[in-house]
Known about the structure:
Number of domains: 3
CATH architecture of the largest domain: 3-Layer(aba) Sandwich
Number of strands: 25
Distance between the termini: 39 Å
Shape: elongated
Largest sheet: 7 strands, mixed
CATH superfamily of the largest domain: HUPs
CATH topology of the largest domain: Rossmann fold
Strand content: 15-25%
Number of helices: 13
CATH class of the largest domain: Alpha Beta
Helix content: 25-40%
Structural class: alpha/beta
Radius of gyration: 31 Å
Amino acid sequence: MNHTANEEHEKLNFIEQLVEEDLKTKKHYGRLLTRFPPEPNGYLHIGHAKSICLNFGLALKYGGKTNLRFDDTNPEKEETEYVESIKHDIKWLGFEWSEELYTSDYFEQLYDFAVILIKKGLAYVDDQTAEQMAAHKGTPTEPGTLSPYTSRTVEENLDLFTRMRAGEFAEGEKTLRARIDMTSPNMHLRDPLMYRIKKDHHHRTGDKWCIYPMYDFAHGQSDSIEKITHSICTLEFEVHRPLYDWYIKQLEIYPSQQTEFARLNLNYTVMSKRKLLKLVQDRYVSGWDDPRMPTISAMRRRGFTPEAIRNFCDTIGVARRENVIDFGLLEFCVREHLNKIALRRMAVIDPLKIIIANFEEGKNEILSAENNPEDPEAGNREMIFTREIFIEHEDFMENPPKKFFRLAPGGYVRLKNAFIIKCDEVIKDDAGKVTQLNCTYVPESRSGHDTSGISVKGVLHWVSATENITAEVRLYDRLFTVENPDNQEKEFLHYVNPDSLKILNKAYIEKHFALDSIDSKFQFLRLGYFCFDKDSTPQHLVFNKTVGLKDSWAKISS
RNA sequence: UGACCGAUGGUGUAAUGGUAACACAGCAGAUUUUGAUUCUGUCAUUCUAGGUUCGAGCCCUAGUCGGUCAACCA
């Protein structure tokens, strides 16, 4: 690190600039309080991670705080299961909220706010059906017309609203609306709904309420009640801002301020909760945490690290234009972190047997191997070299092209951390498939003590055929075959990648894995980064491929 | 065919009236007992047309393209 070069000033996104300006002008007496407001009706995904990193990151950077507020105003969709998973994901990402709050905590206060608006003549009870209301609402190009119920008196409205709360009316029979402007070009200002009747059991308030506030009548006031200084949300809420401001102004409460940014889009995946739920329900994936999903829980299971995800969110930036981030950038961030911390191990996932003719049968030669060349403190481990070993099938070619510097008939190659071997004979089955290689090794080529004078270009990973452990390995590819599964001719489900999961039942891994912690991150040498799946048992190890190594040979050879 | 928002290399993000930069991807090379990592080099950018200004990616006007808005969802 060059500490003298800090004059080079840091890139601030537009929200950081706004916050710095507000802090400087003491707009909120120099205070900063953000909030992350998920609706507990699904699992968090990488798009939420962007919002989490933004909201919590701002507070961390500028000495503020962040509340976690569950936006639970719709009893029919929300569940405690989701509350728990959301809390777990935020903690796992490495953030701590100041207060854990629920919009439902404010139901009584919101009710009082509604009464205030009724008394000011700014809200009325409407008896119209949803259809009638839609007809009066107009369209974006035509103004709406007044509801026939706007003429009710304050007393009448107060009475009706009280009786709504008391459960005297059926669902859909009555609503409470704000009286604003039916001709506004902004549809959200055309007498928006404040309350609807819903006789549902709420995950926290039980059966106490039968009227529930709409998002617009709850969100801004909740921010205001908590004295949130900066209420950050995604672009589609921009048209809601005049209403957000209107409620705060009419109620004369704390002026929280909403700022919008563009949500994250990633190619080769979908991000809407509805679509993710569909993938789960229709069994395209095994669950919300299927490692192919873009959810936080799936990424955790797949072996992505919080550091990598945070760094990704930092790298993509924050702006107001629509964007589609390349999935490859996320993978880059994951590799970047895993390269530093992953333990190097050897595993052969598509084995080809080699018999080393001049190596004594039954002999075990103990070799030393670095656990992580990027981290000297990670130390070394022992590997067992034997007469029979496995190498990767694709590391041998009978008729290799010019630039192939792995094993070929008559050729030499180094076995990583072991010896140089020479391929003497190729054994095939009746179908002509290569089933075994007979080789000889160069005894004086032992790694670290090589006096053979032979130089080889290729270095292969290997596992003893007699001293090993077997394991299941799950390989993942992108979930969809097209960059943008939304906006295709057919429904998104038609574009699910049929090869997004490959299960290899019998991979051979080095014995040292028996000593490794379940939480470890691994690099299978020359194959990629892997981690234990939660399905693992001591008798049956299961690995997930987190992400492959950058593979320039794959590019050359294709 | 209304209102609002947006438009900078292939993808993202900076530059806040004064030399268009950074990351990823791509390409070329060096190092390498991982075809990894690391390092070096390189390609490539201001939607269009007017205007203001000594000077415009930035300000103004018009157009083009893209997004959002008409749930008793959030």
